[in-house]
Prior knowledge:
The chain has 279 residues and is an alpha/beta fold. The chain has 8 helices and 16 strands. A hairpin with a 2-residue loop joins strand 10 and strand 11.
Amino acid sequence: MNGWRSDGAFLVGLGCLVAGFGWVFATQPVGSDRMVALQVGQGDCTVLQVEGRTVMIDAGPAGANFDSGRRVVWPMLRRLGVRKIDLLILTHPDLDHVGGLSSLAELIPIDQVVMSEAFRYHPMVTSFPSLDLRFIRSGESVQIGTAELDFRSYLFGPDDNERSLITRVKWRGSTAVFTGDAGFREEQAILREWSGADWFKAGHHGSDESTSTGLLQAWKPNYLLVSCGRRNRFGHPSPRVVAEGEAVGARVMRTDLMGHLEFIPTQNGWQFTRILRNP
């Protein structure tokens, strides 16, 4: 079964069209089952290829002189054999996370885009290209093949970072958590709800205001992934985050220093396989 659930209320079958939602997952297999953290500079974009469907978390940054959607994400999607994005999850409407969306919408079909309900009337969102955009509430989930995606979003403050849509991916004995730019309060909330993850994407590009000591000590992930730009002006990642990650046994992996990083799900957790080069 594949589709949205809210408190276990509903499921959508694979390839079915459900009135009012139009939720379809019926693509053909496209290469290996894997997760790839893309090197997009000071921003975020992760691609999951799940049993023939493609899920992407964030769309990379764009600015006056650089559009990662056109220059990095699209070429890498082609290299991975992706011809359609089935589900695009946007953590929050900051340009380093959604900037690449406009060019991607021109270059590749995108079936469904989801964001937190907190951003329904955000001015950045109203300027998005015409897409099938769904606003979801904390506690919703979707089953894609054998992968379960669970979502949380907290309204602890007015800042967009604090309202980031948090995603947990559970697949074949592996668990990955993406927190967008959420901070310590949001991390404390997911600690009360979720038991752990063997792969954790450092919040806010590894800044000192995210990836708390408590979270790292409680979860002890095998991998701590940092997505940031080389020699960025923010000083990301924080030396504290790197040191504390290593102290709990995590392998700290940085897109700025290493490139595009590929992982595969196993019954014993995520396994790093290789660094992918640019096409």
